[in-house]
What does this fold into?
Amino acid sequence: MKNVWMLNHYAIAPNESGGTRHFSLSRHLRDYGWESSIVAASIEHDNGKQRLETGRKWRIDFHDGVRFLWLRTPPYRGNGGGRMMNMLAYCLRACQHASTRDLPRPDVIIGSSVHPFAAVSGAFLARRFGVPFIFEVRDLWPQTLIDLGRLEQNSGMAKVMRKIELWLYQRAARIVVLLPGAGDYIEPLGIDRHKIIWLPNGVELEGAKVPEPAANDDEFIVMYFGAHGTANGIENILRAFAILEKRAGTEGIVLQLIGDGPAKPTLMELANDLQLKRVTFKPPVPKSQIPTLAEKADAFVFNLIAAPVFKYGISSNKLFDYLAAARPIIFCSDAANNPIDEARAGVTVPPDSPQALADAIVQLAAIPADQRAQMGRAGRKYVEAKHSYQQLARELAAILDDVADSNK
It folds into this structure.
């Protein structure tokens, strides 16, 4: 059995809320001769919870046979200096010999961004052990921050991050990207296109039955679950419901918002200001409970703000969970790729248009239930064919085998 280390600052265990990409890939990698060790920070990103007991610098846990190494990092809230200190603490801790001494020696190391500093630690560790380094790009930093207005294009921080980004691209034996168009961003930087491989997010379908249509007699439940952040643009959904609640004949249409994130308190205040009567905010649930939760929905809404970075596409965890739930989806985004249109699994409306979203919700609720069920089944077939984690793990194993064999 060969070994791969996956450095993902924000990785979570399956009993926590959020995306479990690396856990799901790791479960299935064993079928192809690879054992994974996921190296993550001890602070949970969404809620600031500390996983480690007082005085412990690290701990190894196993979840369904997958090894997690939690490295102690300081607490923080929001996106300020505390978060930056947390990032740097994780990266320094990961590079310390003592922190990783109980892990099996790696044959390949993957450094995964949301932020690039974790990938820098992965590159240094790969050099130390003399093994190939794979750079997994989940977000295009700093471009994502620039496009979302959080970082100035020509700031000193942006220039430093661009140099780090380029160094990582050059250092990597392979660059695994989640966004289908990321190669169009990376190749012009002078990077060989053949190094860039698209491996999107997916969903666990092993042994899962296709859900039956929801049995909500008196209500039509529109559901959103996932992060409550700036890019998600949930304000647009609330304003759409403000329009909808004033429209006659829509009394049975309700909205459930499930999840957490930095924008949630502001969104709850907005819902109160708009006097929304049929909108409910609920706490996040563990990933393992998502299928049961999703069965209660009649439809899902997927929403993103209009931002230049989405011209490279999206690969959102929750979108594949929605598709797996066999429910119609309202896709509110102008991203370069549109899985809902590809699958014929719902309707598409432009972003940042509450009126268009309100109209789409009303229209979807009004069509016959069998037509909505047909949309849901089409989405389920799409995700089974293209986004099963078992299939994606097989593709990742082929990448790992390729770089490991070339290193012999």
About this structure: The domain at 2-202+388-406 is CATH 3.40.50.2000 (Rossmann fold). The chain has a mean pLDDT of 93.
